[in-house]
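Extended Data, panel c. Modelled sequence:
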Amino acid sequence: MTLDELEQLVFRLAGSSMEALEQQMLSRLKQQTTFVGGRRVARQELPELPKDAVISVHRVKVSLYGAKPPVWRRLEIPSAMPLNLVHAVLQVAFDWHGYHLHAFETVCGQFGSPDQDDDWAERQDEATATLAQVAGSERAKVVYSYDFGDDWRHDMVVEKIIPAEPGVAYPRCTGGRRDAPPEDCGGIWVFNEQFAGFGDLFNVRDLNERLAGLGTVLIPDRSHLHGLATTALVRAIAFDGLTVDYPECTSTIRPNTSPASIFW
């Protein structure tokens, strides 16, 4: 072997080693980090659902990224609601019609529907994670993206985690501003240019009427607790074999098989 051939071999080996090292580093970085709203964050393991999550509510502000003037909704969502149902809530809240793909970006990685695999990203099944698990504290952030063509990004920030009120059905809207964009209007730039002057026609009551089909009472009103005969009122706390204590009674609830089932 000549010196020239030996030199070329060394360069090839060095190049292969560097490429392999880069691939290892990228793979490790991918495992340890994830993106939430374009920002790289440390990736966390999905925690177990806190036991008090089944009777608590996440008060979140969901803002349409880039909208001028702002478009937002303040929602109170059951902490134990799985992300596939959070998706349904956001579709109603922003008057989307489910024509396009969607995804959640969280500190625990991306989540989406198994039926919507676009081969671009590795997404976990959204039905296997709840809001409390991916956003377990105040100021936690989740990004919900809808329609990867028009690229509607919804920034969801946890404002407060509060006990559910007896007899109140959740989810519900407590505030908001401006109607959301029409489907397939071309993206946020077109919306800002062509629809900014339409005024603020958003109505909280109208939205809550549309959310009623997803509503669940987390804590029964005391007047309905006698004997716990109305099982529909307590179905939302039927998780993990919890023992639920009220002044009038104590009852052990049969565990369900999945977080989503507490809302069905």
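The chain is about 25% helix and 25% strand. This feature is highlighted in the accompanying rendering.
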